[in-house]
Amino acid sequence: MEERLEEILDHAIENGRGMTALGKTATYIPELGHVNKEYLGVCVCTGDGTYYESGDSDIRFTIQSISKVISLAVALERCGFQKTFDRVGMEPSGDSFDSLVRLDLASDHPSNPMINSGAIAVASHLSCEISFERMLAFTRKLCMDDEIILDEKVYHSEMGHISRNKAIAYLLESKGILENGVEESLDLYVRMCSLCVTARSLAGFGLILASDGINPLTGERLLSSKVVQTVKSIMLTCGMYDGSGRFAVEVGVPSKSGVGGGILSVVDKRMGIGIFGPALDSKGNSIAGQYVLRELSDKMRLHMFADHVPEY
Ligand code: GLU
Predict the structure, then answer these.
(1) What pLDDT was estimated at residue 1?
(2) 2-64+195-300 domain in CATH 3.40.710.10?
(3) H-only helix segments in the chain
(4) Catalytic option among 37, 39, 54, 68
(5) Bridge-partner residues for 60, per DSSP?
(6) CATH match of 65-192 with 3.40.50.720
(7) So what's the pLDDT on residue 312?
């Protein structure tokens, strides 16, 4: 007999808990180092808006790099494709998320908007067009979660340890890629990274991306089809840092991770999945979270190239 969705989630969390000991929380932002690395939670939001949850799915944590998906989507909507992709590429870099080597030596613009250099370039552009308050309000809509706020402690912790991202921003400025000043660009970038979400909020956002940018509960279109198609493609190829290739083979679902331990996954036309597991692997991806997603993908046939799709 097929397992029910609730049981599949419970088993995946139970099995994944053993993996948290193998990872570490991010400590280069000191405040993230204080999070309990044993947390592990998952939430699935299916096409009719029903949420299924297991484990620590209602603990708030900072969205970090997952905000890069939101910033890219808003930049594409407001600044257009040409202006956005004039400054940032759409190729996987194969380098770590905070690398500046390739940008300095081999290229005149960041490889893609999912690494720090690309996201800072996008934030620079956005900071001339839209306030942080409006970005926050839109993030709440995309995640169907009105309780998302700025985590002041994490924001100040990152701003106090910003040297590497500042180096990236100055390099971008030297190449004429920044639209706004270094301080203004970094401020919006770090504020967006410091928004507090839950696995449940990410599952809601995932469902909106799975539903072509429309909130299926209200019928409201939040993002255009072309923007949604673009961000999902970039999530698939670049969303899991330099682990994106293996993740695409093993899980096969467009996803974006953050060093706060979150993973946003989009199972096209079927569901959104949110993960929280702050113990990270060496690439900065939630170690147990990836395990949970592999198990869900196998059991529910979520891989985008799976041959048979059962009802979930
Ligand atoms: N705020 C983090 C940084 O810029 C985000 C990194 C991430 O989640 O990959 O370093």
Answers:
(1) 43
(2) yes
(3) 5-17, 67-79, 81-87, 101-105, 116-127, 132-143, 152-159, 163-174, 182-193, 199-210, 225-238, 244-250, 287-300
(4) 68
(5) none
(6) no
(7) 61
Task: Respond yes or no: is residue 185 known to be catalytic.
Answer: no
Closest atom of ligand 1 to 258 CA is 8
Q: Does the CB atom of residue 284 touch ligand 1 within 6 A?
A: yes
Mean pLDDT by 10 residues, the chain (312 residues): 86 97 95 97 96 98 98 97 94 76 77 94 96 98 98 98 96 94 98 98 98 97 98 97 94 98 98 98 96 97 85 62
Pairwise CA distance, residues 19 & 195, whole Å:
26
Ligand 1 site, residue 165, Cβ cutoff 6 A:
yes
User: Would the CB of 193 count as within 6 Å of ligand 1?
Assistant: yes
Which atom of ligand 1 lies nearest, measured to the CA of 194?
A: 1
